[in-house]
Write a structure and sequence with these properties.
- With 496 residues, the protein is α/β, with parallel strands linked by helices.
- The protein folds into three domains: 3-191, Cobalamin-binding domain (Rossmann fold), CATH 3.40.50.280; 222-316, Transcription Regulator spoIIAA (2-Layer Sandwich); 318-337 and 348-496, no CATH class.
- It is 35% helix and 15% strand.
- It has helices at 3-16, 37-40, 44-54, 103-112, 158-168, 172-180, 188-191, 242-245, 253-259, 280-289, 306-314, 329-334, 341-353, 372-386, 414-428, 439-449, 453-465, 469-477; strands at 27-33, 59-65, 92-96, 128-132, 149-151, 185-186, 223-226, 228-229, 249-250, 266-270, 293-296, 319-325, 358-365, 391-397, 432-436.
- Helix 4 packs across helix 17.
- It binds cobalamin and iron/sulfur cluster.
- Iron/sulfur cluster binds at residues 231, 233, 235, 238, 240-241, 272-273, 298, 300.
- One of its GO terms (molecular function) is iron-sulfur cluster binding.
Length: 496
């Protein structure tokens, strides 16, 4: 995209935003997202940090995103939305990173901005690169090659505390020394690979809600608000399980309803396990009666009742989306899921009774211990459900993550995942729509999820080589340590 086309796009997007906090202040930060605007402006965490910075006296931020057509010959360096300024003009670039495959976006964004992507190649003449985001709840070690400091976990107030410290520090080295003493701040140049634990913010600060409603985003014009934070369940593969951050903190119904603007026509209720909110049905029904379309970030099948699904239908749901998690009952038990076949059968019946077009089920393949028999059980079970209501499966290959009991388990192997997917597709042909994310990229995600600085450097090499899967394979091959297998024969290792 040429510079002038980029400027036109930015102006159009700014004109369509509702709620932006325009502010001038002496200390300005480039709050950046390593994916395009559509994704970044759907991130409540990113918008929460935006809001906190804009509320701080003497401080303001300007937003920047990876250009939309980056990777397809983008010419222009990214500029901030508010000031059309290059990122290199700012003393601090603050980055929100959601998950492992966004590390490439971090490297690209910095290099497109004309900055060395590697932390060790930057000095006091360059902006300080501060990072945070959902990735820090799991394994941000590969990010440590790019970022000068990483805020682990919930940064609602921590981000501004750290920015104050950066503003006031006499030098970059002094800032690094001071930051290394702040709890939950990971300073790779001082801590090596020793990451501090994740922060938990004061519950009085909840909920996060998005100050800006934007049109050209994944969640177009949706007002996002947290109904709860964290999760009290203990699914063994999940980064947000109760052990990560002390369980679920619930936002009272009254507080939620008072914060949602009367003119919001679309509302997104966000949280790791939103349907566990004790008053969720009342919240959804009240919003639907106000004329709002409502979306929930997750629905647990064991929480679905006639009343709940009725409220969701009233709030505009046409597809009932919930999680099946594993291919069979045995696999689900190893994952410690509370969802039972009877819950999924009831979900199918409720979807039909309430006139939904279909039931969408998320699940993983390649879970430790899974065999072809489990896949066959999935086929017959889903075929049964499809007699009740049309079914669509959204499948992701299992990736072991740090901070979960399945950390250390093995990635199934690209071939195994693909074979299982073929078996599922064949078995369900004509009976269910089966969509899956790529096994190859899941392998890349698994390598990064278990990786350290060497894997971070490999991301940069892969990006330089063009960023294809083959480029990642080659870059990882050079690392002298055992990596999750690309090819593996059955059976998989049992979960640890
Ligand atoms: C809503 C949601 C989505 C939405 C919105 C995406 C988004 N970017 O927020 C959609 C549906 C699009 C989505 C997509 C995906 N998601 Co999602 N998503 C969530 C969910 C349920 C809530 C996120 C949220 O808004 N939380 C509330 C806010 C306030 O918290 P937060 O984002 O963590 O922000 C805090 C900190 O991270 C930090 N922070 C955030 N930004 C910044 C920036 C700076 C500078 C600093 C210092 C700090 C900081 O401070 C914030 C305030 O405390 C979380 C689970 C959870 N966290 O509860 C999963 C979660 C983040 N998603 C996850 C995944 C895997 C994905 C997908 C990859 C799924 C897929 N296979 O496609 C994609 C990735 C797309 C993307 N680029 O983000 C994982 C990430 C785990 C990991 N790293 O291993 C999570 C944790 C779910 C899980 N249980 O595993 N997701
Ligand atoms: S998968 Fe969902 S219910 Fe299970 S621990 Fe994670 S957030 Fe909670």
């Amino acid at each position: 995209m040429s510079r002038s086309a980029m400027t036109t796009t930015i102006r159009r997007r700014l004109a369509s935003e509702i709620g932006r906090i325009d502010k001038q202040a002496p200390f300005r930060v480039a709050l950046s997202y390593p994916s395009p605007y559509r994704a970044g402006m759907s991130s409540l965490g990113f918008l929460q940090i935006y809001k906190m910075i804009q509320a701080e006296p003497g401080m303001a931020c300007e937003r920047a995103f990876l250009p939309d057509d980056e990777g397809q010959g983008a010419e222009g360096a990214p500029v901030t939305y508010e000031g059309l300024r290059p990122l290199s003009d700012f003393p601090v670039i603050a980055l929100s990173v959601a998950y492992e495959l966004e590390l490439a976006g971090v490297a690209r964004l910095l290099e497109l901005a004309g900055l060395p992507a590697l932390r060790e190649e930057r000095d006091g003449r360059h902006p300080f690169v501060l990072a945070g985001g959902p990735l820090t709840f799991s394994n941000p070690l590969p990010l440590a090659v790019f970022a000068d400091a990483i805020l682990m976990g919930e940064a609602d107030t921590l981000a501004v505390e750290v920015l104050r410290l950066l503003r006031d520090a006499p030098s970059r080295e002094a800032a690094l020394d001071e930051l290394a003493r702040v709890p939950h701040v990971f300073v790779p140049a001082r801590h090596g690979a020793e990451m501090p634990p994740v922060a938990q913010c004061d519950s009085a600060l909840l909920p996060a809600w998005s100050p800006i409603r934007a049109e050209e985003t994944e969640l177009s014009n949706m007002f996002l608000i947290e109904a709860e934070r964290g999760c009290s369940r203990g699914c063994t593969y999940c980064v947000m399980r109760r052990s990560t951050n002390g369980g679920m903190r619930i936002v009272p119904k009254e507080r939620l309803l008072e914060l949602i603007p009367e003119d919001a026509r679309r509302v997104g209720l966000v949280g790791a396990a939103v349907s566990d909110h004790p008053k969720i049905v009342e919240v959804v029904r009240t919003l639907a009666e106000r004329g709002c379309e409502v979306g929930l970030s997750s629905l647990r099948p064991d929480r679905l009742t006639d009343e709940f699904v009725g409220a969701l239908r009233l709030a505009g749901y046409k597809t009932l989306t919930t999680a099946m998690d594993g291919t069979s009952e045995r696999v689900r038990e190893t994952l410690e899921r509370r969802a039972r076949p009877r819950h999924l059968q009831r979900a199918a019946e409720l979807a039909r009774q309430h006139g939904m077009n279909r039931l969408k089920l998320y699940l993983m393949v390649g879970v430790p211990g899974e065999t072809d028999e489990d896949v066959d059980e999935c086929v017959s079970f889903v075929a049964e459900l499809s007699r009740v209501v049309p079914v669509a499966l959204g499948i992701a290959p299992f990736c072991p993550k740090r901070n979960t009991p399945l950390h250390g388990a093995r990635f199934a192997g690209i071939d195994v995942v693909n074979k299982r997917l073929d078996r599922l597709r064949r078995g369900l042909r004509g009976r269910a729509d089966v969509r899956a994310t790529s096994a190859r990229w899941a392998w890349v995600e698994a390598v990064l999820a278990a990786g350290g600085e060497a894997e971070g450097r490999a991301v940069l090499q892969a990006v330089h080589a063009g960023g294809s899967f083959r480029d990642y394979e080659r870059a990882f091959e050079k690392i002298k340590r055992p990596e999750p297998p690309r090819r593996q024969s059955l059976p998989l290792l049992a979960a640890g």
